[in-house]
Amino acid sequence: xxxxxxAKQILWIILGVASAVAVTRFxxxxxxxxNLTDNSPWGFWIGFDVMxxxxxxxxxxVIAAFNYIFGKKELHPIARAAILTAFLGYAAVAVGLLxxxxxxxxxxxxxxxxxxxxxxxEVGWCVMLYLSVLTLxxxxxxxxxxxxxxxxxxxxKILYKIRIPLVILGIMLSTLHQSSLGSLxxxxxxxxxxxxxxxxxPVIFFVSAVYLGLMMVMVESMTSSWLYKREPETHILMKLRxxxxxxxxIYAALRFGDIIFRGAGLFLxxxxxxxxxxxxEIFISLVIPxxxxxxxxLTKSINFMYIAxxxxxxxxxxxxxxxxxxxxxxxxxxxGTFYFPSWMELFISAGVVSLAMLAFFFFIENFKVWEHTxxxxxxxxKVKPKFNSFNIYLGPxxxxxxxxxxxxxxxxxxxxxxxxxxxxIENKGIDSAQVSRARxxxxxxxxxxxxxxxxxFKHVFHxxxxxxxxxxxxxxxxGDKATGCYECHSDMxxxxxxxxxxxxxxxxxxxxxxxxxxxRNISKGKDYKYATNKNSTVKKCEExxxxxxPGDSKIKEIKSYITVSYTDALHKxxxxxxxxxxxxxxxxxxxxxxxxxxSKCHHEVQKFIYERKLFxxxxxxxxxxxxxxxxx
Amino acid sequence: MKAILxxxxxxxxxxxxxxxCKVINNLTPDKPREWQKNxxxxxxxxTSVLSNQKYFVRKQCRHCIEPACASVCPVGALHKTEMxxxxxxxxxxxxxxxxxxxxxxxxxxxxxENSVPYIKKCILCxxxxxxxxxxxxxxxxxxxxGATIFGxxxxxxxxxxxxxxxxxxxxxNQIYGEKEVGGTNVIYITSKDCPLDFLFYYNHRVDxxxxxxxxxxxxxxxxxxxxxxxxxxPFAFLGMGAIMTGTYWVIKRRQERxxxxxxxxxxxxxxxxxxxSNEQD
Lengths: 632, 281
Prior knowledge:
The complex is a heterodimer. Chain A has helices at residues 3-28, 30-33, 44-56, 59-69, 76-100, 109-112, 119-143, 150-161, 163-183, 201-227, 234-262, 273-294, 296-299, 302-326, 329-332, 343-366, 400-419, 422-426, 459-464, 469-472, 501-505, 514-517, 525-529, 566-584, 605-613; strands at residues 386-387, 392-393, 443-446, 455-458, 624-625. By secondary structure, chain A is an all-alpha fold. Among the domains of chain A are: 34-341, Formate dehydrogenase/DMSO reductase fold (Up-down Bundle), CATH 1.20.1630.10; 435-546, no CATH class. In chain A, strands 1-2 form a two-stranded antiparallel sheet. In chain A, strands 3-4 form a two-stranded antiparallel sheet. Chain B is α+β, with helices and mostly antiparallel strands. Chain B is built from eleven helices and nine strands. In chain B, strands 8-1-9 form a three-stranded mixed beta sheet. In chain B, strands 2-3 form a two-stranded antiparallel ribbon. In chain B, strands 4-5 form a two-stranded antiparallel ribbon. The longest helix of chain B has 26 residues, at 233-258. Chain B starts with a strand and ends with a helix. Chains A and B meet through helix 1, helix 2, helix 4, helix 5 and helix 7 of A and helix 1, strand 2, helix 2, helix 3 and strand 6 of B.
């Protein structure tokens, strides 16, 4: 076992977890798998995968420019690796974007629906074109391996001839979209912190991308020489160090000059989260690399060089994260919630990076990316076919590693897929309320009218009817504690002076059960509520009150037993008609729909209700949302 | 252009507008979820009523005259109609959510709970008005007190001025939405003790009372901020190309003159490009 093989195993495990997360994200949607909110619609995937990724891949055009245009041939040995990194970086950006977009299958719409005003449109086109250019720039490496196939050889020849125009085109496109990624944020002066929002943010982005490109090439060179146990390319690193120092100077001057010129210098010394982030970013991206690279004694040590380059890379990616979301108002003020990526977001990003790295290893092991294709470092494995401590047979020597990697991937995928709980994900973000046990027995006396006539209420009976808890008890709804009996038994208050329902049903009064008068066979509650002819099920008064109609009465038969009160009569006569009409006609065509609204007359009702229920603990002059009382 | 005028002093907070909006747009009941903002708007509430105990304010899309959301959308899924509404074409959308980031009022909402999500916001009942089904948006026609009314923007601004002039002791002498970010099609007038600055998206500079050079004025339309950068695109593109071609040519000539290369420049760069391919030969 050696470094590269271990690194690959870890990458395959990350990839397995990420694949499980990816499936979850596409099944359940963005809301429950990410921590994105309406306040922070862009998160880690935009900040790191897209903005960071494009910047990280900037090494390709920087090295291509130095090597082919400026004639710095000493950089040539790393040119192919730099272009490969850029190619894989952009491919990773495209893959990462597919997870972030809400409708990724519509990504091609940018080709047919144009909006040239949009910076994102321009970025999209540039990335698309540049990815094609990079493919053409890199494909000779693949093609030269097959000189025997005439067609491929011909394509190789053509590509070879146009390589300088291709490099120039690549540089042109890179310039555009590296800076346009900054232009994206020009449209957000009300979001971005003033230390980052600048009218020249496109220029700042371009310069920092060039700087990051150099640093990234250094990191990549040192990392791969460590992994493959090669000699570090010291002479190239020293050359890059010189350019990097220049870029540090230019970038720092641009950054601070811009802040001071705009008059945002006062923000530099605030005791605020935004200011801390700024100084952190400056320290990582500029101060550490500057100190190490400027002292020749330190640069002799490859470890220090690595720290410097890595610090520069992390610093500029941190800058992209800051601009992309961390320094937006929702994170810096009390307006919104603080955004921090969920573990799923982090794993998707890690998975995309792992995929790109694995592809990188594949290319350098199989094609002539470096001057010397690295020796297969897995050679020592051939010592025994039965490998590792568990003594599991993993196949012949040739495929041992492949088996191992596939095993890692499948295991990681299956385990994390099993551990992701579907219910937990589906319920994410729903406010939960405490539920207490119902007090009292199954039969309660409910004194709904507060007139000391409690109505017997059988809880068990309602449960047996199949009425869910939520139909009556829904404490989560603002401004609503529980459903009153009348919500289902809609006619229980349809009573006048002639008949006192509450007296009849109360234990203090007649103490009759419901079914003394109402037919037991006819289902009550939900079904009863929507029944068309309710009164027909009620027992007639004279069945109990035998002497109800005296013999000499002019009325021989009582047709309706329910009389309405004065208020009910008024409401029923005017408003009832309007409401009935509203149900059949469309909302607006009725002449005066507003008559059907309570608030037409009861101006104070809403204020009264809300003041009592909502504003008991009201902070002074704080704005809250009114609950929608129509949602049931 | 059509517009909505909301008079805060007349609103009684009955939330009929919220209900009417839900009915006309077939919006299902909303569960409070953690990704929603605390201002009542969500993918299923396109308008909401805020209250500070004394006054009620209706929140909705402002339908800016020069909308930032439409300007930044890479596929033009949002666009400003001749009626004044900013409408959304879900068939074009690819879900980048740039509109949500760019909106100066923080209005557009996302279907976070769906695996096929779309942008949701007030569209001023554009489809229904265009087809003649409605004469005015559902919310304004549902308002029992006339606190929110619909009409031509010029007429409403005249009306707002008239109201402020008639009762100067009652109204704040400012029409919100007349000039901000180039003017909006939903305008507010309010009582003296109820300034509506909080409806505007938060602004660090205003908060600190600092005016920074190069930042857009509060009355400047937001699409202007990206204009210079987008205008510079062709020049940057061609300029960079010209510089690179020129540099390449100059440096190649210089290297040829210095004679540290063979007479065939092509051969040199070939070697440079191809790296170790010579070793194979």
